[in-house]
Each structure stands twice: as C-alpha cells, then as structure tokens.
Design goal:
- By secondary structure, the chain is α/β, with parallel strands linked by helices.
- The chain has one domain (11-236): Spore Coat Polysaccharide Biosynthesis Protein SpsA, Chain A (Alpha-Beta Complex).
- Helices cover 37% and strands 18% of the residues.
- The protein has eight helices and seven strands.
- Strands 3-2-1-4-6-5-7 form a seven-stranded mixed β-sheet, sandwiched between helices.
- β2, α2 (50-56) and β3 (60-63) form a beta-alpha-beta unit.
- α5 runs parallel beside α8 (215-236) and α6 crosses α7.
- The longest helix has 22 residues, at 215-236.
- The protein is globular and about 45 Å long.
Length: 254
C-alpha cells in the first residue's frame, strides 16, 4: 500500500454524537484507516443505540451527559490526553461530512504547510437541501467578520476540520455548545496558527438536525456564533499576528 496524505502522522478522530445510531455505521466505515489510528465517539446523552453501534464498529465511546456540541468535543479530548495523537480530526456523526475526504484535511499538516485545516463546504460543494438559507446567511456573515476583524480570510465554519494536537492544546478550548467551531478559529487567529481551507463536499444529513432543524436552534446557534466573535474582539481587540495563507476565492454567497 502506498503512503497517502497523513502518512507518518498519528491521527485520532473525534465524533460528537447525539442519537445518531442510523448514520454512525456509514461514518465509521468511511474513515480511512490508516491514517486514522482510533476513533472516539462522544455520546452526548443519546437515548437510542448510538453508543452500542459505535462500539460494535470499533470506536471508543465516552459519555458526556451535559448537552452541547462543545461539551462532547471537550470530553473526547479529555480521553485522548493520556495518549495524545499528532493530529485531531473532527467530523459530525450525521453523515453530512464525507469521511473518505479526511486525507484532504491532513495533507497540509503532513506537508508542514498548516497547523489547522478547515474543510470548506463553500469551496467544495453542498448538496441541495443540506444547508438551510439561514445557515448559509449566518455562515456568510460570520466568515466575513472573521476576515475583517482578525485578518484571516475564510469561507466556512464547517465542523470537518483537523488540527495539530499541540496547537489545539494551546487554544484552551472552552465553549460548551454552538460556539465551538468559531471559538477555535478566533483563538487560532490570535495565536497566529497557520490556517488553510480545503474544499470538501457536504451531504444531506441522516435524520433531523438538533440545531438547524428548528427555528429556535438556528437562532440560538447564530446568536452564539456572532456573540463569540464580538465578545472576543471587544475584550481583546485585533490580534497582533495574522494567521496563514488566505483560501481561494469563494463563490458561495447567500
């Protein structure tokens, strides 16, 4: 077997999950191993067979009863800390991300070009119906704020992402819910991490979204994301250093 992107790196995948028994088998089967060494599924209080399904397919399952995307991710990272990888790969459990595209995210890190890679649905392509108009508009506003305030042009806050373990630890992530992804991007800009985006595809999820599937969830997520950016900037002002190269121009607009 020839070495591919990510060869030589120890990569662990983190998958936060809440009632995703129907989608998890496809997600776990699609992750390329190698380069992925192990998968940690953070069960965020599921009432279905999410944990059982994940274990049956070789994943390590950790429990985080406190609801929230960030809470689940933080619990998974706590589990990894005793034997940390070189790189953490984050992806969703609902099969909207294509796990077979993981090598695209790992290549810039493996080649030494980046510390932090975001899979951009804007540069790739989103299947019709996979993103609501509200999601597209909120993403458009948030990414333009990040570019204007932090000097890090970007096109997406997508959950499919990879980051060096050492860089992730330096960020001291804290957000327990909707602000997790944008907190990572804001803090990465402040630390001057080399950030790049790579195009990824995005599919209609299996099952109903707990956030975008409801008006209330969409409003809470949008408020939290924009609030995270605003609060950080008001507290700390502009970053002293600018992070890595700008992504290719996006044609994805609301």
């Amino acid at each position: 077997m020839t070495a591919g992107p990510g060869a030589g790196l120890v990569v662990d995948a983190v998958i936060p999950a809440l009632n995703e028994e129907a989608s998890l088998p496809a997600v776990l089967a699609g992750l390329p191993r190698p380069p992925v060494r192990r998968v940690v599924v953070a069960d965020n209080g599921s009432t279905d067979r999410t944990g059982e399904v994940a274990r049956a397919r070789g994943a390590r399952v950790v429990l985080e009863p406190r609801r929230g995307y960030g809470s689940a991710c933080l619990r998974a990272l706590e589990d990894l800390r005793s034997d940390p990888p070189d790189v953490v790969l984050f992806l969703d459990a609902d099969a909207s991300d294509d796990p077979s595209e993981a090598p695209r995210l790992l290549e810039p890190i493996a080649s030494g070009r980046a510390d932090f890679v975001i899979g951009s649905r804007a540069l790739g392509g989103a299947e019709p119906g996979s993103l609501t108009p509200a999601q597209r508009f909120g993403n458009w506003i948030a990414t333009r704020l990040l570019g204007a305030l932090y000097g890090t042009p970007c096109t997406d806050l997508g959950p499919f992402r990879a980051i060096r373990w050492s860089s992730l630890e330096a960020l001291r992530m804290r957000d327990p819910d909707f602000g997790w992804t944008v907190e990572m991007q804001v803090k990465a800009a402040r630390l001057g991490l080399r950030q790049v985006e790579v195009p990824v595809s995005y599919r209609r999820r299996i099952g109903r979204s707990k956030i975008s599937g409801t008006v209330g969830g969409t409003l809470r997520a949008g408020t939290k994301i924009l609030g995270t950016i605003a609060l950080d900037y008001l507290r700390c002002g502009p970053p002293r250093r600018r992070a890595g190269p700008a992504p290719a121009k996006s044609t994805w607009a609301p």
